[in-house]
Design a protein that fits this description.
It is a single chain. By secondary structure, the chain is an alpha+beta fold. The protein is built from 13 helices and 13 strands. The chain folds into two domains: 169 residues, Gcn5-related N-acetyltransferase (GNAT) (Aminopeptidase, 3-Layer(aba) Sandwich); 164 residues, Gcn5-related N-acetyltransferase (GNAT) (Aminopeptidase). Strands 1, 2, 3, 4, 5, 6, 7, 8, 9, 10, 11, 12 and 13 form a 13-stranded mixed beta sheet that branches. β4, α5 and β5 form a beta-alpha-beta unit. α7 crosses α12 and α8 crosses α9.
């Protein structure tokens, strides 16, 4: 059979593109199938505000009539304008264990991007840094936490063989609470706790829970803090309020207000922290379907979730290093302890973020999953 790779141009092709991962991961016990509607929504130019400033082509590979791979070519105009270093992006890469198919997909994506003036592409981003991204290179026998990708063991070999090289690595870390532990003080670093307690005595510093009744205003505030905090990082692109709202709404139904904490100095918000129940423990049993039976399964298995995922700790630059991060972390640890979780995932952290990595290691987190963003020259 002859390999063909063509753009997705109709509903039949789109369905094949969206559902192809089930073919790749059907026998992988660590894969958590995405919700089908979420997959469609992420690709929908009308529903996903990311596409307001981006352009893309979806590619579908077939052997005969059978789908064997997918990839997307993406131009992120806002990212390129912000960084001043224009690059093409590829994403939504999935492929059978066949280097010829992989080479064909990457060539198709790269050729389209080169025709649009790019000499290099990076990825995979699905479709941006705020979504699941990267290729798993370590931790294949572990389950991803919520909002983390999972890819087959053979992808790194395929990417290396296709001329892709490392652009950056991201890591997920895990801490497991020992069963003999009777209180938080036994495992939380004493030095960090002392700093947190000292800062908590300052009358101008407050830690509060998110106000769910003012959700829109809280999200607007959090988006502003997020962009302020990451503004010194050269390759981080400010996220729009619309994108941030979509991101926040995606986990609104599962969050606990006790684990969405906002730091204020006087009346000014200066940082926030978010931890989410790792609903992948429950979603793993649904096969991507949230009908009445799926909802019943989700309710049943979500009662037994033992892992929480500490996703974000943000502090605006002028208040970094003043101990407020320690107080936020300690208050979050208290909330996690009070809710009875036994494992804490912290993800994802770029390897260039040495300060955050050192902080995570000091409080007992160990790397258990590593992802790689690749780059490929298109000349």
């Amino acid at each position: 059979m002859e390999l063909s790779i063509h753009p997705v141009e109709n509903k039949v092709d789109l369905k094949a593109f969206v559902e192809f991962p089930w073919q790749i991961y059907k026998n992988d016990p660590f894969w958590v199938s995405p919700q089908l509607d979420d997959r469609y929504s992420k690709l929908d130019v009308a529903r996903n505000p990311y596409w307001q400033d981006s352009e893309r082509v979806l590619w579908l590979a077939r052997l005969g009539s059978k789908p064997v791979g997918t990839i997307a070519s993406i131009v992120d105009y806002r990212r390129n304008k912000h960084t001043g270093n224009p690059v093409g992006i590829f994403g939504f890469f999935e492929c059978n264990n066949d280097e010829n198919i992989a080479r064909g997909l990457l060539k198709c994506a790269g050729d389209w991007l080169r025709q649009h003036g790019f000499s290099r592409m990076i990825g995979p981003y699905n479709p941006s840094e705020s979504d699941e991204n990267g290729i798993l290179i370590e931790g294949f026998n572990t389950r991803p936490a919520v909002m983390e990708a999972h890819t087959p063991y053979y992808y790194p070999t395929i990417f290396d063989g296709a001329g892709c090289v490392k652009y950056n690595d991201l890591v997920a870390r895990l801490a497991v609470i020992p069963p003999e532990c009777e209180n938080l003080e036994q495992i939380f670093p004493e030095k960090l706790r002392r700093i947190a307690e000292q800062v908590s005595r300052r009358p101008d510093i407050h830690i509060r829970k998110v106000n769910m009744q003012e959700w829109q205003a809280e999200i607007k505030m959090a988006c502003n803090l997020y962009n302020q905090a990451l503004s010194p990082v050269p390759d981080i692109v400010p996220i729009s309020e619309d994108e941030f709202l979509v991101f926040a709404n995606s986990f609104k139904a599962i969050l606990s207000p006790d684990m969405v904490l906002i730091a204020e100095v006087g009346s000014r918000p200066v940082g926030f922290a978010i931890a989410l129940p790792d609903v992948n423990e429950a979603l793993q049993h649904l096969d991507g379907k949230l009908g009445p039976i799926g909802l019943a399964k989700f309710w049943w298995f979500s009662r037994k979730i033992k892992r929480v995922s500490f996703k974000i700790l943000i502090m605006v630059p002028e208040f970094q290093g003043r101990g407020i991060e320690a107080l936020l972390t300690y208050r979050m640890a208290q909330a996690i302890w009070n809710q009875g979780y036994k494992e804490i995932d912290m993800s994802l952290t770029g390897e260039e973020n040495l300060k955050s990595s050192l902080f995570q290691e000091r409080i007992g987190f160990k790397v258990y999953r590593r992802y790689r963003i690749y780059q490929k020259d298109l000349a």
